[in-house]
Design brief:
The chain has 335 residues and is α+β, with helices and mostly antiparallel strands. The chain is built from nine helices and 15 strands. The strands form four sheets. An eight-stranded antiparallel β-sheet has the order 1-2-6-7-10-13-14-15, covered by helices on one side. Strands 3-5-4 form a three-stranded antiparallel β-sheet, covered by helices on one side. A two-stranded antiparallel sheet has the order 8-9. The N terminus is likely disordered.
């Protein structure tokens, strides 16, 4: 009788060990959270077997996003970029690794695009107000501030930055969010997450497979209709969209949006929406803005010339919404 009890206890303890060890819960479960960062809603989703630990990993990723936001904030706080923009008597600054990576990549695409992507648009950008009823700056003010625009005014040398024009300032709104997404995903991967997604207001990085070996399905918002365009699996893990419907106001029947053309200081007029797939979120973020400024024809040619991105471009012609797309997207999109 004693041996029977012992056997029962042994089996029971083994069973409890299996349960507590996670055999019955080994299938990863969805753990997600949303916070407001970088002036947008940021959602992180991961599949993880331990919900409590998964939530702690989400916090680590959000903390990284907060850290990057602090560094890249141009007009408030006490971060690196704010200090550079606020300074009036310092001619050279030493910057940390994060800001340096963003500045180097910004210069690369500034040169490659012939100035279509230019973070030195800051002084002009700050004249506009796209909130509420909106504000159109005086043309003379725009012309004056345009004198400070041009990444050619920015000298970068071994983690040092200098402005050739003392009036030049930087706004990294077209790149910082993508970089933050890359860093948040890096934190998740470094901590053992195998499957997840970070969505920062349309800048998306997804990795791994969902349970059942299912792919992540990414939808693209139609710029004028209340519907989502579903996209088949793409070869790149990141996607970003820039649209004239995100931050805008309408005056006298004209839509004024926040994506400015660095050549004239006014909203770029060629496109209404640009989606880009790339190998990292920083590049996707930069390129969605760059292609938007270049317009449909030049933007599509630019994307095709890069060889490692895909794009879907919406524009208006004769009152109708039309679209063009790179070769790698054509068989994956049903408009």
């Amino acid at each position: 009788m004693k041996s029977g009890v012992t056997c029962f206890l042994f089996v029971f303890l083994v069973f409890m060990g299996i349960v507590s060890g996670g055999w019955f819960w080994s299938t990863p479960r969805l753990v997600e959270a949303t916070q407001f960062l970088m002036d947008t809603s940021v959602t992180i989703k991961i599949f993880y077997s331990d919900k409590t630990k998964g939530e702690s990993l989400l916090k680590k990723a959000f903390d990284e996003g907060v850290r990057i936001e602090h560094i890249m904030e141009p007009l408030k706080g006490s971060g690196e970029l704010w200090k550079i923009n606020a300074s009036k008597d310092v001619s050279e600054w030493t910057v940390g690794d994060d800001l340096w990576r963003v500045l180097e990549r910004s210069r690369y695409f500034y040169e490659l695009s012939g100035g279509a992507f230019d973070p030195t648009i800051a002084q002009v950008k700050w004249l506009w107000d796209f909130e509420g009823d909106g504000h159109i700056p005086d043309m003379r003010d725009i012309q004056e501030k345009l004198r400070s625009v041009g990444f050619s005014h920015v000298e970068l040398n071994d983690h040092h930055i200098r402005f050739g024009n003392p009036e030049t300032r930087l706004d990294l709104g077209g790149v910082a969010k993508g970089y933050a997404v890359d860093r948040m995903v890096a934190v998740l991967k470094e901590n053992g997450v195998k499957s997840g997604l970070v969505n920062a207001g349309g800048d998306i990085y997804y990795f791994g497979k969902k349970p059942g070996n299912a792919d992540w399905v990414i939808g693209v918002r139609h710029p004028r209709l209340s519907r989502t365009i579903m996209i088949d699996t793409m070869p790149f893990p990141t996607v970003a969209t820039s649209g004239d419907y995100e931050r805008f106001f309408i005056k006298d029947g004209v839509r004024y949006h926040h994506i400015l053309d660095p050549s004239n200081g006014y909203p770029a007029r060629g496109c209404i929406s640009v989606t880009v797939w790339a190998e990292n979120a920083m590049d996707a973020d930069i390129l969605s803005t760059t292609i938007f400024v270049l317009g449909p024809e030049k933007g599509l040619a630019f994307a095709e010339s890069l060889g490692n991105v895909e794009t879907l471009i919406f524009f208006e012609k004769n009152g109708k919404v039309e679209a063009v797309m790179s070769s790698g997207v054509k068989d994956k999109v049903n408009l």
